[in-house]
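> example.struct
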């Protein structure tokens, strides 16, 4: 069943790219208000690096009584970042900006396309 869902998402991603010309998708798998706030703050700051195509991002949230709320950023289903999220709006906004910048640099470095980018996030 899970493989069918992944396959359908891959087909959907291909169709969206062909029709809309988008470089990638960002999926929301958050469960709480804090998680959703982080996702929206991250998404408002996020832009794919130039030349990076067919990369799918997922913002996935897990809650744990011991660790609290954890947010994972996955690139093509591989976990890249883990954040402990607290419900303070200012902290969520700062974390979203830091993660967007770090992920931008990570994708440039990983895909070998580091072009002395001076991309700034607002």
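> example.seq
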């Amino acid at each position: 069943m899970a493989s069918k869902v992944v396959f359908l998402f891959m087909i959907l991603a291909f169709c969206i790219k062909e029709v809309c010309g988008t470089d990638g998708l960002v999926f929301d798998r958050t469960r709480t208000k804090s998680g959703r706030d982080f996702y929206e703050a991250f998404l408002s700051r996020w832009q794919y690096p130039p030349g990076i195509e067919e990369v799918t991002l997922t913002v996935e949230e897990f809650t744990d009584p011991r660790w609290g709320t954890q947010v994972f950023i996955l690139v093509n289903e591989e976990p890249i970042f883990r954040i402990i999220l607290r419900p303070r709006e200012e902290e969520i906004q700062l974390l979203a900006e830091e993660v967007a910048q770090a992920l931008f640099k990570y994708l440039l470095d990983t895909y070998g396309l580091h072009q002395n980018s001076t991309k700034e996030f607002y």
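> remarks
The chain has one domain: 23-110.
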